[in-house]
Amino acid sequence: MVSASGSAAGLDRRKLHAMMQAYKTTSLVRTGLELGVFDALAEAPLGSGEVARRLGTDARATHILLNALCALELLETVPAAADAGRDETSGEAFRLAAGADELLVSSSPAYFGGMVHVIASDWEWEALRRLPEAVRSGGTVLDVNAETPEYAYWEDFAAYAAAIARPTADVMADTLEPWARGRDELDVLDVACGHGVYGFTMAERHPQARLWGLDWPNVVEVAARHAEELQVSERTRFITGDMFEAPLGGPYDLVTVTNVLHHFSEERATQLLSRVAGVLKPGGRVAIVGFVRDDEHPPEQDPEPHLFSVLMLVWTSLGEVHPASAYEKMLAASGLSHLDQQTVPGLPFHVIIAERA
């Protein structure tokens, strides 16, 4: 029997063994990035002794690490005769595997290594370590969690998650393009703006756009730096505070609500959508980005939303990924009409566009 992913269905010892030691793989990726292994090998293959010298690490330990990264197919060895930088002891050198130069070297335009601070962070590990307690209690048992004001994790999210947000922001902007292009003004409120990429993408594409980003003060500092880097700071203002309580200002042509509704129950998420619906101009739009749980297919055919719901279980009081049917109910209860929905190629995110009914 074969699963929807094409792999053999059912459990065997090999699969179970891989699940049990998956944390080791994560640790190796994190360590390689933290120590600068991939940057050290960006220009040419090197022996482990030379890598250790450049990184200031122990030679024996570095050799063990490099071999382990080869086992993960992030690096590969070069025969001794092929390279003058070979290791003096083993006679081999190490080089980046195909794709590593693009994704794991920090100077690459497509660098994705920064996401290790987000999807493999100490914050998430500490929360998931207490999953049994969360299952017993029905929600987070952490004193400091994703709902805590000015949670420090959101600074890392704002600093590093832009790499995964850009493709989704492009899908959002593409979907809104015909509507946005026809408006003389384009005032945008980016709720829980984080890195700010969703609002900044609209500002980059539309000269008439003015942006207001709402988030905690510690997060807004990061978003403000991104606005300067993207040269949209002159058209950007920020609102600090709790998105359920801070004055929103407005009215706005577009409100973006990105990667946030899964932090709350359906009732609480509806309250937020009702708030933003109340500050829309006539003909305005709400753009929602996030996971959407499939109502019609079992978890094994669409695993990402269900796995992400586990993170919400350990990290929030009542958060989870909502099904498509719940989004329809939340939009209707908020006075919003569902106009369009797009998926993001290669990513498990959906873009939902709505307007005031």
Automatic annotation (TrEMBL):
<feature type="domain" description="O-methyltransferase C-terminal">
    <location>
        <begin position="188"/>
        <end position="336"/>
    </location>
</feature>
<feature type="domain" description="O-methyltransferase dimerisation">
    <location>
        <begin position="20"/>
        <end position="86"/>
    </location>
</feature>
<dbReference type="InterPro" id="IPR012967">
    <property type="entry name" value="COMT_dimerisation"/>
</dbReference>
<keyword id="KW-0489">Methyltransferase</keyword>
<protein>
    <submittedName>
        <fullName>Methyltransferase</fullName>
    </submittedName>
</protein>
<dbReference type="Pfam" id="PF00891">
    <property type="entry name" value="Methyltransf_2"/>
</dbReference>
<dbReference type="InterPro" id="IPR016461">
    <property type="entry name" value="COMT-like"/>
</dbReference>
<dbReference type="GO" id="GO:0032259">
    <property type="term" value="P:methylation"/>
</dbReference>
<dbReference type="InterPro" id="IPR029063">
    <property type="entry name" value="SAM-dependent_MTases_sf"/>
</dbReference>
<dbReference type="Pfam" id="PF08100">
    <property type="entry name" value="Dimerisation"/>
</dbReference>
<dbReference type="InterPro" id="IPR036388">
    <property type="entry name" value="WH-like_DNA-bd_sf"/>
</dbReference>
<dbReference type="GO" id="GO:0008168">
    <property type="term" value="F:methyltransferase activity"/>
</dbReference>
<dbReference type="InterPro" id="IPR001077">
    <property type="entry name" value="COMT_C"/>
</dbReference>
<keyword id="KW-0808">Transferase</keyword>
<dbReference type="InterPro" id="IPR036390">
    <property type="entry name" value="WH_DNA-bd_sf"/>
</dbReference>
<keyword id="KW-0949">S-adenosyl-L-methionine</keyword>
